[in-house]
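hiii so um. not sure if this is the right channel but i have a protein structure encoded as tokens and i wanna go backwards to a sequence. like what aa goes where. can anyone help
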């Protein structure tokens, strides 16, 4: 089974754009080599706009097919390392270096993405050796050089000002930093791109940015194995579980439970691995949920609960971007549906809920009941199953799925 890296990159980009990163809660996050305060920028669609800029410059440079593909993937996910390191935000240079390292560490051990990881690590380097890792000139991968330029262009765009004003300021700013932040060759090629009014107008056309990127996207693709996709899914499980002080290793534990039940039911190895991945990704939509709601102690009000419930909608939205994993997407995003049709987000009735979805539901409920929270002690397995037996009686969950889970836990 092969999974398109371009589609995975698109899904990651969407997750990053949806993420509640609390930028507006930071006083400052200043790039020491430019003086730019990132907290003053609106980061909605930042990765996409940066990708559009990078691809326009890359096309002007007439890059090789492989280099252009690497530029596409790395630019669209270049800020993957920003998750869960806001505690470093008051140390600007440390934060900037840390998110580059985090992005690198996430991807470096996945064979198909090891070079992408290197690009992401160095995307804040400066041509004159004044960046985070003190690389100089063409020791910096050309893709990372382009992303550095594209990132600084996008973060300085003020979308409430006319594009012409932005164009004049930014082109002048870039010209003045040739052979300092950027090579002269890169600056010259950007200035050629910048002469086109269409380039700036496209950046302002937020509703069509996906189409502009699609038009520029490389025709080539690489495909990763299901096992490599599991490695990537583990990364996202860690991001999600770390997002809240309450969830600890929730996604990984759901994954392990679902995998064990799959083996008990004699699913073949491929299907059992898919169930494991579904567990890892089932809460990926929580990137879109504000931390103050995820971490709230005690009862949620109706509006807060509605916001929490939307995470499964976003799980489906993100995973549906990835080709060839329709089954994983379905199993991961239906874990809050109930047999009697009172679940969410689609009120699916039992006859339309697959066995795999039912297994994910009981694993999720069980793990939530037995897990310790800062405000309460987790139940014992016996206590949890007493409560879940009542859920079977209420036609919330599947008795076969529950019995299979019991066998794995109690025996």
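sure thing!! here u go:
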């Amino acid at each position: 089974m092969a999974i398109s890296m371009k589609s995975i990159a698109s899904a990651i980009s969407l997750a990053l754009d949806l993420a509640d990163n609390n930028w507006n809660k930071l006083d400052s996050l200043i790039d020491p080599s430019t003086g730019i305060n990132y907290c003053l920028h609106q980061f909605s669609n930042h990765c996409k706009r940066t990708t559009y800029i990078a691809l326009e410059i890359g096309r002007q440079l007439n890059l090789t097919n492989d280099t252009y593909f690497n530029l596409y993937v790395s630019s669209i996910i270049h800020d993957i390392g920003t998750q869960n390191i806001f505690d470093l935000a008051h140390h600007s240079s440390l934060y900037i270096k840390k998110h580059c390292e985090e992005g690198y560490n996430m991807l470096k051990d996945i064979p198909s993405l090891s070079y992408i990881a290197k690009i992401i690590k160095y995307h804040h380097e400066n041509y004159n050796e004044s960046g985070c890792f003190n690389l100089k000139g063409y020791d910096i991968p050309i893709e990372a050089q382009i992303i550095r330029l594209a990132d600084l262009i996008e973060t300085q765009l003020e979308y409430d000002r006319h594009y012409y004003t932005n164009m004049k300021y930014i082109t002048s700013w870039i010209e003045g930093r040739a052979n300092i932040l950027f090579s002269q060759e890169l600056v010259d090629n950007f200035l050629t791109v910048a002469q086109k009014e269409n380039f700036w107008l496209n950046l302002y056309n937020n509703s069509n940015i996906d189409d502009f990127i699609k038009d520029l996207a490389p025709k080539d693709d690489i495909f990763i194995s299901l096992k490599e996709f599991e490695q990537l899914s583990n990364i996202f499980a860690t991001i999600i579980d770390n997002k809240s002080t309450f969830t600890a290793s929730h996604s990984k534990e759901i994954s392990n439970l679902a995998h064990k039940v799959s083996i008990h039911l004699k699913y073949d190895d491929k299907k059992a691995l898919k169930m494991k991945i579904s567990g890892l990704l089932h809460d990926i939509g929580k990137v879109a949920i504000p931390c103050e709601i995820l971490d709230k102690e005690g009862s949620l009000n109706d509006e807060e609960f509605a916001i929490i419930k939307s995470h499964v909608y976003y799980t489906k939205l993100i995973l549906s971007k990835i080709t060839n994993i329709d089954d994983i997407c379905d199993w991961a995003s239906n874990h809050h549906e109930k047999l009697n049709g009172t679940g969410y987000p689609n009120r699916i009735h039992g006859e339309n809920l697959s066995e795999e979805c039912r297994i994910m539901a009981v694993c999720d409920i069980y793990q939530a009941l037995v897990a310790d929270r800062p405000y309460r002690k987790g139940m014992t397995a016996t206590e949890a199953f007493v409560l879940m037996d009542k859920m079977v009686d209420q036609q919330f969950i599947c008795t076969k799925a529950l019995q299979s889970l019991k066998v794995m836990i109690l025996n």
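oh and The first strand starts at residue 2 and ends at 4.
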